[in-house]
Amino acid sequence: MNSKIPFVFLLILLVAYTTVFGQKSTNNPDPEHYTFQLSDQVTRQKVTFKNRYGITLAGDLYIPKNKKNEQLPALAISGPFGAVKEQSSGLYANQMAELGFVTLAFDPSFTGESGGEFRNVASSDINTEDFSAAVDYLGLQKQVDRSKIGIIGICGFGGFALNATAVDKRIKAVVTTSMYDIPRAASNGYYDKVTLEERTKKLEQMSQQRWNDAEAGIPAPGQRSNAEKLSGDEPQFVKDYFDYYRTPRGFHARSINSNGAWTATSAFSLMNMPILTYIQEISPRPVLIIAGENAHSRYFSEDIYAAASSPKELMIIPDANHVDLYDQITIIPFDKLEIFFKTHLK
Q1: Which of 43, 118, 186, 230 is the most buried (most CB within 10 A)?
Q2: pLDDT given for residue 28 in this prediction
Q3: Contact 293, 319 (CB under 8 A)
Q4: Mean pLDDT value of segment 196-209
Q5: Three-class secondary structure assignment of the chain
Q6: Bridge-partner residues for 342, per DSSP?
Q7: Triad 58, 88, 94: Cα angle to 5°
Q8: pLDDT value at position 44?
Q9: Entry pTM
Q10: Cβ distance 152 to 131 under 8 Å?
């Protein structure tokens, strides 16, 4: 037999496999990979800490290499809603650590590597508490000046970050990017177009689903967060989400938005427990709200800016969409974030 035949046969198999499964194989199945490159100016270490409900949260602590003997200001960072720390929040933590902050990117309760059963569930209260627990952890680190702690919330965790800042007076400054008020969206739909009848019907469906979940002993998953592939006629913002979560750009095996679904009843408490009622109580601590000019979520940021008390600032990024502020380093205004936090964390 010609010794080259086995090699040629294997090559044919490889080409066939790539052709048939190529789209799926572009997504990294390794749950330990990060969607961004760690800066050579920063160290990263895995950490865990508990929130007030006893749930163990998993995070990555980023520390500037050239400031190891100094007490530094610190930032707790989370989001987007349904993402994990190896995605956007980790990128933000990496960039802000380069700028001289100790940063903690963390997985919220019930998601990623954090604890909590059952999985893939959200809560107005617990997800707000997660930020305060991250502040607890940072304030216990010898390298952190606990009087200089701020937070960054991305997408849905922008809303929870604002809610945490209103109640937790240790937080000295807060930034949101592509902010979403998740309970408002769950309850009222985009632009608050859901009628009372539609809301009631949705709650009735979830209420009945609870019987099924109780009988099964485990919550059923809801609709997948991002489809396996697109048909092409989806709204642009759906295509933007897909371009981040379902491609090598931002795919992560542990991310609900990349690889799964929230439970069918996850919105049950969100729809009954609004956040941001006390947004004005953030004052006199400063708020910086950043949104893309073309973001479908822009109205959330504008409404919160109008409702908040001074000092406050709304920054609209020209030509940017909602997802651009997840990971586009040339678009995200990290220079503005540096100035904001170094000005107010003092």
Answers
A1: 186
A2: 83
A3: yes
A4: 97
A5: CCCHHHHHHHHHHHHHHHHHHHHHHCCCCCCCCCCCCCCCCEEEEEEEEECCCCCEEEEEEEEEHHHCCCCEEEEEEECCCCCCCCCHHHHHHHHHHHCCCEEEEECCCCCCCCCCCCCCCCCHHHHHHHHHHHHHHHHCCCCEEEEEEEEEEECHHHHHHHHHHHHCCCCCCEEEECCCCHHHHHHHCHHHCCCHHHHHHHHHHHHHHHHHHHHHCCCCECCCCCCCCCCCCCCHHHHHHHHHHCCCCCCCCCCHHHHCCCECCCHHHHCCCCCCCCHHHHCCCCEEEEEECCCCCHHHHHHHHHHCCCCEEEEEECCCCCCHHHHCCCCCCHHHHHHHHHHHCC
A6: none
A7: 75
A8: 98
A9: 0.91
A10: no
- Domain ranges within the chain, ordered by starting residue: 31-181+275-344
Place of tokens 């035949």: 5
pLDDT grade, residue 168 (50/70/90)? very high
Q: What pLDDT sits at residue 27?
A: 76
Q: For residue 161, give every residue at least 6 positions away whose Cβ sits within 8 Å of its Cβ, in sequence order, or none.
A: 78, 79, 131, 151, 152, 153, 174, 175, 176
Rounded-to-10 torsion of CA 201, 203, 207, 212: 70
pLDDT at 241 over 80: yes
- Residues 6+ away with beta carbon under 8 Å from 222: 261, 262, 263, 264, 265, 266
- Above 80 in pLDDT, residue 171? yes
pLDDT band at 31 (very low <50, low <70, confident <90, very high): confident
Tokens of 173: 């400054």
How far apart are alpha carbons 24 and 8 in whole angstroms?
24
Structure tokens at 267: 């919105």
CA dihedral sign, ordered 223, 224, 229, 230 = positive
Distance CA 321, CA 178 (A): 9
